[in-house]
Structures are given as C-alpha cells and as structure tokens.
Amino acid sequence: xxxxxxxxxxxxxxxxxxxxxxxxxxxxxxxxxxxxxxxxxxxxxxxxxxxxxxxxxxxxxxxxxxxxxxxxxxxxxxxxxxxxxxxxxxxxxxxxxxxxxxxxxxxxxxxxxxxxxxxxxxxxxxxxxxxxxxxxxxxxxxxxxxxxxxxxxxxxxxxxxxxxxxxxxxxxxxxxxxxxxxxxxxxxxxxxxxxxxxxxxxxxxxxxxxxxxxxxxxxxxxxx
Length: 224
Ligand code: CA
Description:
4-stranded antiparallel β-sheet, binds calcium ion
C-alpha cells in the first residue's frame, strides 16, 4: 500500500514515515500543495495523509481540487486544529477522515487500514499483518509493498491465518482451504504447505511467523 504524506513539519513527517513504514506501508513525502499535486499526478497512491497548514496554502484546497477532478482517493486529514468547525469543514469538503495532532502512530495506522478496507477503495479487502499484505480481491501477497510469488493454495492458507491473526486456526479448517484446490490431501499436506509458506515468507523478509499449536492448528503472529 502506497501512501502520500503531505506535511511541512519535517520532524513530524519523519516520525509518521518511520512509524508507518514499520507497519508495512510505503510512504512518499512532500511538504507543499504544489508538490502534492505533482506527486498525485505522477504516481499511483492508495491514500493521502494531508496536513492543513501548508506553506503555499490550505490543505483543504487540495481536497476540493481532487474531488472536483473526480479523484476519489481516500484522504485522511492530520490537523492541529481540534475545533469542531474545522473537522466539519474537512469532512464536508470531501475528506474521508481526520486525526487531531498529536496522535499515536498505531491509531494513524488503524485509521489508514480502515479507509483502505472501505467498499470502493482501490485495494478491496486487504489483510495486513506486519509488513505482509494479502489482497483478497486480486489474491496477491506482498512484503514491504513488493509483490511476491505465492501459489494459490498457499495464498488460501495465508488468508485463513490472516483473517484470524494471532489466534489459532484449526487444522480441519485449514485443510478445507487446501481441498478446495482439488488436489489430493495427504495426511501431512497441511504441514508441507505451512512449511513452504514459512520459507517463502522468511525468504521475502516478512516480519510475521506461522506458529504451530500442536494437535490443534496454526496461528500467525507479528515478530518482535
Ligand atoms: Ca503544517
């Protein structure tokens, strides 16, 4: 998932960039309306994080400009102005959500994911844990925003695990997701598939790990 951060305070911008990068987002940064518009026209983004007080004008003018051009990219406003009027103006003006500074990175990441999960959002339903994302619409898996090659049955397995991340998913349920590919399921088919998935994820630099709950099933966790 690629985000455009428009924020002219370098310390805050760096904090947000570092924090969200650790949560698995790819972030491009700029500090003015002019650069934001240029970046939007030059690259494809899934979400814009927008400060309102920018050196060359008010962030809301960018929101209006994009909406007038029928650009429906989700926009999350980051504002120091906590006043109710500003919030209403932001949402009425076509922004999707706002967060008042100062905020926690975890809260910001959760809001970003919620916006990206909305119906009609560019990515459909994305299951995310650590730096791993699975797009349930395109059936693609990416690590640090780079797509990795995963066979369909392992995508199905990973999907089941990510839908209940940090909880044990039972063996029989996971086996069903393998059966659905019409292959013979030998007694250790699940173990083999999990083992291949583990190698694939660690080989791609994923910071999540599939753990075994002996005799019960498997669970996926973020490492660290
Ligand atoms: Ca500012």
